[in-house]
């Protein structure tokens, strides 16, 4: 059940499986507009098309808004039937075809071996599974010192261009490698599930469009539009694998099914729900059932099953935070530089004085929302001070960070039914007051080493997400 990344991985390991999914799709009008851009060279885009794509997200100093997909909220849209959700947390269920991989930032890393030693599965078995997934998805990255703690698990990663801002930061850090390493920092180029470089091969179709026409590009063209949705469909989404396998006959895929419950019998599993196209009931029996409908929906289905001993659950979270960065080394003409606008660098803070756990940071260089935000803040002075804006843009970047669950808040789910039999699911966030202290200690450490890293956090603009906002959460067993 589900077509997100977990559903994709399960289908990869289960040839012939039936994958059922609610499967919200991109509105046809938006898909047509995006595909018109994705079937031509970016140099052929009109100003009207670029303005439309950039208008689908509006920057704000109040924090980072939920990422849309060509202006659509399909990744977060609730289903027309089934459970009623009362969400008082940053996390949201996804009923989209491809789940949250529709809007993700494509950053990937393995778990650090030092932090999964207490898990019930031995560390040694993980490498084979990482490799199997990456063979399907592809990986853009480079071999660098980050492999000391986080292996690539891919024999031939593809390459993506590095922005001038990111190169300045990385080269400065390399010049101060000894001091930074002694201080507990590890870093390297980002690792992204994006088609990049000359190693990309095979046909690339626009999986967000119902007709799946051919994309104009087979690898990243550095058009700077990643944050809005890639018109060339080069950022991996699990919908790409599900569609390909269904067309090849390796799996069966049925969209428009909302699973509402299941019951386990000694020799089979009974599953039922609703066909959203005609409103009729839907029922199946199977030898095995894998719930891959996302952390929230899958848990709600388990809590609602007859065998569940409880109707509540607790989730751990990875505290999400963002802060702009002031760069010491300016990069010229960033507004016109060919680049991708996903994460450029990964920076890890090893366990030590700040936390007993790893702290993961991602550095993003220039994207046009920085320019638009500065224009907003300048108001009527934006025209007369335009030259200052352009200079400032070359010195601004963006940091996104995640804490370990030990330093983060939690979420609590409860399930009940009203008098009409409608299932109601409540999700309540419980922030950990210690999280802000750990984040501020991390920023203080970055500030102390600012000359060596080449950047300074702009403290007053720190934003702390509510539990669940980073979509890195998991059920407590």
Shape: globular
Mean pLDDT: 91
Q: Sketch the topology as an H/E string, one letter per element.
A: HEHHEHHHHEHEEEEHEEEEHHEEEHHEEE
How much strand? 15-25%
Uncertain segments are none
The helicity comes to: 25-40%
For the secondary structure, the number of strands is 17
Number of helices: 13
**What is the CA-CA span between the terminal residues?**
20 Å
Cα-atom Rg, whole angstroms?
A: 23 Å
- Biggest sheet, in brief? 7 strands, antiparallel
Give an overview of the whole structure:
This protein is of the alpha+beta class. Helices cover 25% and strands 20% of the residues. The strands form 4 sheets. Strands 3, 9, 10, 11, 12, 15 and 16 form a 7-stranded antiparallel beta sheet that branches. A hairpin with a 4-residue loop joins strand 5 and strand 6.
Question: What is this structure's SSE topology?
Answer:
Layout: H1 5-12, E1 18-21, H2 28-38, H3 47-55, E2 84-88, H4 113-116, H5 126-137, H6 164-175, H7 177-182, E3 185-189, H8 238-248, E4 252-255, E5 257-264, E6 269-275, E7 281-286, H9 295-303, E8 312-317, E9 320-327, E10 345-349, E11 359-364, H10 368-378, H11 386-393, E12 396-402, E13 410-417, E14 423-430, H12 434-448, H13 450-453, E15 455-457, E16 463-464, E17 473-475
Parallel strand pairs: 1-4, 2-14
Antiparallel strand pairs: 3-10, 5-6, 6-7, 8-13, 8-17, 9-12, 9-15, 9-16, 10-11, 11-12, 13-14
Summarize the structure.
By secondary structure, the protein is α+β, with helices and mostly antiparallel strands.
Key terms:
13 helices; 7-stranded antiparallel beta sheet; 477 residues; 5-stranded mixed beta sheet; 17 strands; alpha+beta
């Amino acid at each position: 059940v589900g077509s997100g990344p977990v559903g994709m991985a399960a289908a990869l390991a289960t040839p012939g499986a039936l994958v059922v999914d609610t499967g919200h799709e991109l509105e046809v009008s938006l898909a047509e507009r995006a595909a018109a851009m994705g079937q031509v060279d970016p140099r052929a885009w009109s100003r009207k098309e670029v303005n439309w794509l950039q208008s689908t997200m509006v920057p704000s100093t109040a924090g980072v808004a939920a990422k849309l997909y060509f202006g659509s909220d399909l990744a977060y849209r609730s289903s027309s039937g089934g459970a009623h959700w009362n969400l008082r947390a940053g996390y949201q269920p996804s009923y989209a075809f491809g789940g949250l991989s529709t809007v993700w930032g494509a950053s990937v890393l393995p778990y650090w071996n030092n932090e999964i030693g207490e898990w019930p599965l031995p560390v040694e078995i993980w490498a084979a599974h990482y490799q199997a997934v990456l063979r399907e998805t592809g990986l853009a990255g480079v071999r660098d010192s980050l492999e000391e703690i986080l292996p690539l698990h891919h024999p031939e990663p593809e390459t993506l261009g590095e922005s001038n801002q990111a190169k300045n930061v990385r080269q400065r850090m390399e010049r101060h490698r000894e001091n930074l390493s002694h201080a507990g920092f590890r870093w390297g180029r980002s690792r992204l599930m994006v088609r990049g470089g000359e190693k990309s091969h095979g046909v690339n179709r626009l999986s967000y469009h119902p007709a799946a026409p051919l994309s104009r590009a087979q690898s990243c063209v550095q058009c700077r539009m990643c944050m809005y949705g890639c018109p060339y469909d080069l950022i991996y989404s699990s919908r790409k694998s599900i569609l390909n396998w269904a067309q090849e006959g390796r799996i069966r895929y049925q969209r428009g099914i909302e699973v509402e419950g299941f019951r386990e019998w000694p020799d089979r599993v009974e599953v039922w729900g609703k066909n959203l196209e005609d409103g009729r009931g839907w029922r199946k029996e199977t030898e095995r059932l894998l719930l891959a409908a996302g952390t929230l929906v899958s848990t709600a289905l388990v809590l609602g099953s007859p065998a569940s001993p409880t109707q509540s659950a607790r989730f751990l979270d990875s505290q999400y935070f963002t802060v702009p960065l002031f760069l010491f080394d300016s990069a010229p003409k960033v507004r016109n530089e060919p680049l991708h606008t996903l994460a450029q660098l990964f920076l890890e803070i090893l366990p030590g004085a700040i936390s007993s756990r790893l702290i993961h940071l991602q550095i993003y260089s220039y994207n046009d929302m920085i320019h638009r935000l500065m224009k907003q803040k300048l108001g009527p002075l934006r025209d007369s001070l335009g030259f200052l804006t352009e200079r400032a843009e070359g010195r601004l970047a963006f940091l996104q960070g995640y804490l370990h669950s030990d330093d983060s808040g939690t979420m609590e789910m409860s399930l009940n039914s009203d008098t009409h039999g409608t299932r109601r699911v409540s999700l309540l966030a419980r922030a950990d007051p210690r999280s802000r202290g750990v984040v501020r200690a991390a920023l203080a450490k970055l500030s102390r080493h600012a000359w060596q890293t080449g950047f300074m956090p702009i403290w007053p603009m720190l934003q702390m997400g509510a539990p669940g906002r980073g979509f890195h959460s998991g059920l407590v067993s």
